[in-house]
Amino acid sequence: MADEPLVLGIETSCDETGVGIVRGQTLLVDTVASSVDEHARFGGVVPEVASRAHLEAMVPTIERACRDAGVALRDLDAIAVTSGPGLAGSLLVGVAAAKALAVALDKPIYGVNHLASHVAVDIVEHGPLPEPTMALLVSGGHSSLLLVPDVTDDVRSMGSTMDDAAGEAFDKVARVLGLPFPGGPHIDRAAREGDPVAIDFPRALTTGRDMERHRFDFSFSGLKTAVARWVEQRHRAGEPVPVADVAASFQEAVVDVLTRKALLACKDNDVDHLLIGGGVAANSRLRTLAEQRCAKAGIILRVPRPALCTDNGAMVAALGAQMVAKGREPSALALPTDSSMPVELVQS
Ligand code: KG4
Ligand code: ZN
C-alpha cells in the first residue's frame, strides 16, 4: 500500500549491525548485533574489527529480523541504508548488502543520513514529527543541534561540537575514573551516589564572546581535561578519588550545557518541540533535567526509549518509510558512502 510502505533499514555506521523493519509509522522489528564487547579491551571502537563483525553479522541479522517480523523479503517496498556519516569500512558493508538486496529483489534503495535517521526514529515511538522540530543528537560520534522542518529533505544544523562528542567525553572520563568502556552508562550509575555540585567543572562556550560566537556549538575537550587534571592532583596528593562525586559533577556540566543550549535554540527559533536522540539520550540525568527545563519553558519533549536512541536499524527503516510515503525519489544504485556526510544532506 502506497501510504503504508514496508521498508527494511540497515545500519552499520559504527559497531552495531542494525536491521529494522517498519510499516508506515509502525515498528515491526528492531534487530541489533553489536560488536561492542570486541572493542572493550581497546577502550574504543576499532574500525577494522567493526567492519569484519558487520560482514559476519549481516546475513544472520537480516534473516532474524524477517523471521521475527513474519516478513518475506519479496514483500518489501524498499530498502533503506545508512550511507553516512560513520566509519568508512563499516558503511561499505551495509551499503553493499543493501545494494545486493535491492538488485536481487528489484526494489528501490534509499541511502540516508545517519543523523536524520536518529531524528526519524521517534516517529515509530511517538507518532508524526511536528514540523519544525528541534533535535539534540548526542552520541559517541556526534553532538548536534538540528532544526528539522522536514526530516526527509530539510535538516538544518544550528551547531555542533567543536571537538569531542558528548558520548566520547563520557567514555574518556570513565577511563580516567577506571570505569569500563563504553563509559556513559557507568558514569550515569556512579553519579547517582554522587553530589553534582561537589566540583565546579567548566561549562565551555556558555558565556561572553564564546557564547556570542558559538551560541549553539559545544566543546567537551576542556571539560575532559579538567576532570583528568583534578583526578591526577588527587592521585599525586595520595588522596582517594571520590568517583561518584567526580562522575556526578562531570555529568552535570555536560547535561547542563546540552539542555541550556537546546532550549535556547527552541526559543530563538520559536520551536515548541524538542527531540533528544543518540546514545547519550539514555542518560538518566539528561532526561530528568530536560524534562524539568522543558516543562518550565512550555516546550514538549520527545525522547525515544533507550534502545531506539542508540544505533539501530529501525531508525533507518523509519526514515526510509517516510521517504517512500512522501514520494521522494530513490537513490541511484551507484550511490556512494560518505564517512563525513554533511548533516544537511538527508539522502545520497
Ligand atoms: O548512539 P550510540 O549508540 O553510538 C554512536 O553513534 O556513537 O552512542 C554511544 C555513546 C557512547 O559514548 C556511550 O558511552 C553513550 O552513548 N551512552 C551514555 C549512556 N548510555 C550510552 N552516555 C551517558 N549516559 C548513558 N546512560
Ligand atoms: Zn548514532
Overview of the molecule:
There is one protein chain. The protein is an alpha/beta fold. It is 45% helix and 18% strand. It has helices at 36-40, 47-69, 88-105, 114-120, 122-126, 166-176, 184-191, 208-213, 221-236, 243-268, 284-297, 306-309, 314-325; strands spanning 6-11, 16-23, 26-34, 78-84, 109-113, 133-138, 143-150, 154-160, 273-277, 300-302. It has a 5-stranded mixed sheet, with helices on both faces. A 5-stranded mixed sheet has the order 8-7-6-9-10, sandwiched between helices. The longest helix has 26 residues, at 243-268. The chain binds 5'-O-[(R)-(carboxyoxy)(hydroxy)phosphoryl]adenosine (KG4) and zinc ion. Zinc ion is lined by residues 114, 118, 139, 141, 278, 311.
Quick overview of this protein structure:
The chain has 348 residues and is an alpha/beta fold. The chain is built from 13 helices and 10 strands.
Properties at a glance:
348 residues, alpha/beta, five-stranded mixed β-sheet, binds zinc ion, 10 strands, binds 5'-O-[(R)-(carboxyoxy)(hydroxy)phosphoryl]adenosine
Low-confidence stretches: none
Please state roughly what percent of the residues sit in beta strands, choosing from under 5%, 5-15%, 15-25%, 25-35%, 35-45% or over 45%.
15-25%
The beta-strand count equals 10
Order of neighbouring strands in the sheet with most strands: 3-2-1-4-5
The proportion of residues forming helix, as a percent range, comes to 40-55%
Major sheet characteristics: 5 strands, mixed
Helix/strand-derived category reads alpha/beta
Taking all Cα atoms into account, the compactness measure Rg is 20 Å
Order of helices and strands: EEEHHEHEHHEEEHHHHHEHEHH
Measure the end-to-end span.
25 Å
Number of helices: 13
Please, what is the average pLDDT?
A: 96
Bound molecules: 5'-O-[(R)-(carboxyoxy)(hydroxy)phosphoryl]adenosine, zinc ion
Dominant shape: globular
